[in-house]
Amino acid sequence: MSRVAGEPEADHGGPQRDPPSLGLTPLSRIRLDELLREMLDRVGDVVASRERLRSLLNAVVVIGGDLELRTVLQRIVAAACGLAGARYAALGIVGSDRQLSDFITHGIDEDLHAAIGELPHGRGVLGLLISDPSAVRMPDITQHPRSHGFPPNHPPMHSFLGVPIRIRDQVFGNLYLSEKQGAAEFTEDDEEIVVALAAAAGVAIDNARLFALATRRERWVTAAAEITAALLGKVRRSEALHLIARRAREVADADLVMVLLYDDAAGQFTIEAVAGPGTVTPGLLGAVLAAADTTFVDAVTRPQRMLLDDLRGSAPWPVPMPDGPAMVAPLGGSDVLHGVLIVGHGAENDARDDDVVLLSSFADQAVLALERAQAQDERELLVVLADRERIARDLHDVVIQRLFATGMELQSTVPHTTRPEVAKRINHAVDALDETIRDIRRSIFELRTPVGASLRTELHDIVEAATEVLGFRPVLDTSGPVDSAVPDDVVPQIVAVLREALANVARHAKASTVRVTVRAAGDQITVIVEDNGVGTDPALARGGLVNLQDRASDLGGTFEVRRGEGGGTVLHWRVPLTG
């Protein structure tokens, strides 16, 4: 019977043949098998290493595929957890105080986070990498001498691997891995691959930080350009400062921004502009702070930019302030310091040195706003003063001279008048012209008074304030160069004297009319307060009247109280203008 092609021959019961020995003894065949198995194991290790390298490359691509810093950090933690086969992973960022300022975790859900509570600060085993930034690997973290245990609700952890992350030879933070899956502890290969990941992570973090810095710089430059554009038009100081505060708050994503102007003579800050929550803005605007009581006074006296750890405790603020850090940039220009720009962040935010530098550049725009607004105000003031000087000159050289001439002509006609009633009317007209001339001269003095705060203005304000208390408005008569001739150290004394005199009238006089006369003539200034009240006994002077006497004596002047000719009381206070 024929055999089908390819079919093996049938076994007819003959003797079995052994496979060919290739000339090897049994002992040599055993050794060959061992070598084959070792080769297969090494091939498996090579394949595994190749896969881990591929995973490492994929992880590097993943963590470098985003420039948002928080996202990059989260990807680094997840990649480290996958590469080392860890159940839990974390990245602790080391702050300037050499403690953990932030802690990004992987493998722990939000509920467990909340149950654990406060995040670690970098003490115990976690602090090993802070004090000595080098890789740490241990089989059981709980057995280490520096182990402080875990807080309540914390998952159990034993095997541990820690690797520092460096950026330009500076430690940015540390990678912490725990609970090796499928093995009792992390291997040397795990350590090497996580070290390699940490090196790539440092580059990715640096790129993300540089991108964030460039983005912030662009925002500050855009805001500065907006401020500059706004200054090209007509601007007022208050409007410019409020615009600066609003834009600084938007760009810095801050809780509160304030512009404080500094008065060197008084040694105090005045809050001129505020951008922040409605709960603090009304109480802050216009508030005055003693510079010596603030921790940021050096920013304006040296000057220098500063980074405050606690805004709330930096000054005696009139309202409760938000807690957290703050940046302070001096406002100065033309060798004259104007104040400070303060940007306050919330407690959950952080202020960086880079941000302080950017804020300083932005603060220069605030200086331009101050200088340009001041220049505009000065130009407008010069226009007003020039116009007032022209009016005063015309009144003096033309109007008064014509009135004086008219009065002289009227007086010259009196001897030629035969009717007494005509002469009387002419004399009344001359007296009216004299009074008009005195009023015009008073107006000339006021026109030549500097615009803004002046002694005349303060006297008017005091009289207006006394109107409500007295029930009627006192008559105020000022004459002579009250604003230009009175020394600065005498002005507060005059103001205090008038307030005290009007207060005495309100308390004791029961008057219905009061006349206040302030006259600067020769080398002295005189304040006279007359009322039609019940009068007073000069011998019984006490309290406020004694204070008036002391003020006059301190300035080398005189003070007297007497009864008025028609009743009431006359206060007569006089001090020299020189010496």
TrEMBL record:
<dbReference type="InterPro" id="IPR003018">
    <property type="entry name" value="GAF"/>
</dbReference>
<dbReference type="InterPro" id="IPR003594">
    <property type="entry name" value="HATPase_dom"/>
</dbReference>
<feature type="domain" description="GAF">
    <location>
        <begin position="68"/>
        <end position="215"/>
    </location>
</feature>
<dbReference type="InterPro" id="IPR029016">
    <property type="entry name" value="GAF-like_dom_sf"/>
</dbReference>
<dbReference type="Pfam" id="PF13185">
    <property type="entry name" value="GAF_2"/>
</dbReference>
<dbReference type="InterPro" id="IPR036890">
    <property type="entry name" value="HATPase_C_sf"/>
</dbReference>
<dbReference type="GO" id="GO:0046983">
    <property type="term" value="F:protein dimerization activity"/>
</dbReference>
<keyword id="KW-0902">Two-component regulatory system</keyword>
<dbReference type="Pfam" id="PF02518">
    <property type="entry name" value="HATPase_c"/>
</dbReference>
<dbReference type="InterPro" id="IPR050482">
    <property type="entry name" value="Sensor_HK_TwoCompSys"/>
</dbReference>
<protein>
    <submittedName>
        <fullName>Histidine kinase</fullName>
    </submittedName>
</protein>
<dbReference type="GO" id="GO:0000155">
    <property type="term" value="F:phosphorelay sensor kinase activity"/>
</dbReference>
<dbReference type="Pfam" id="PF07730">
    <property type="entry name" value="HisKA_3"/>
</dbReference>
<dbReference type="InterPro" id="IPR011712">
    <property type="entry name" value="Sig_transdc_His_kin_sub3_dim/P"/>
</dbReference>
<feature type="region of interest" description="Disordered">
    <location>
        <begin position="1"/>
        <end position="24"/>
    </location>
</feature>
<feature type="domain" description="GAF">
    <location>
        <begin position="236"/>
        <end position="380"/>
    </location>
</feature>
<dbReference type="InterPro" id="IPR025660">
    <property type="entry name" value="Pept_his_AS"/>
</dbReference>
<feature type="domain" description="Histidine kinase/HSP90-like ATPase">
    <location>
        <begin position="489"/>
        <end position="579"/>
    </location>
</feature>
<dbReference type="GO" id="GO:0016020">
    <property type="term" value="C:membrane"/>
</dbReference>
<keyword id="KW-0418">Kinase</keyword>
<keyword id="KW-0808">Transferase</keyword>
